Amino acid sequence: MRENTNLITTPTVKPTLGVVRNQFEAWRKRRRCRSRIPESLWQAAADLCREHSMGEVSQVLRLNYNGLKHRVQGSRDRGLAIGQGPDLGFVRLDLGAPIMPSECLVEMEANGSKMRMSFRGVLRGVDPVELSRAFWRQGR
Prior knowledge:
With 140 residues, the chain is of the alpha+beta class. It has 5 helices and 2 strands.
């Protein structure tokens, strides 16, 4: 004989902890020995964890804490859209194309003097414009 697993219909008002506790007690009175808890009752218990702690819900409903925790996490995971993870508080910055190491060659000639500057990668502590000015000042 099959057990009726539709103990909770879709209510317009969220069931309270007391109402769900009464539903669990009614199910326990008429269940067969060692039968599984209906999915609708597990869902009602998981829904209560939005307003109550898992410890309180598991204690009042006489449920295994880890079993309830697994159901609560599963229902939260199913609520996420595909490709969307939980909000971790990170801000994503789009910096455009990655900066590749650059190479630059500058050759200058003035009054018979020649200067050649070759730079690779990121310039740190070197100002090519200032070096150019120094070269031009010296040639005067």
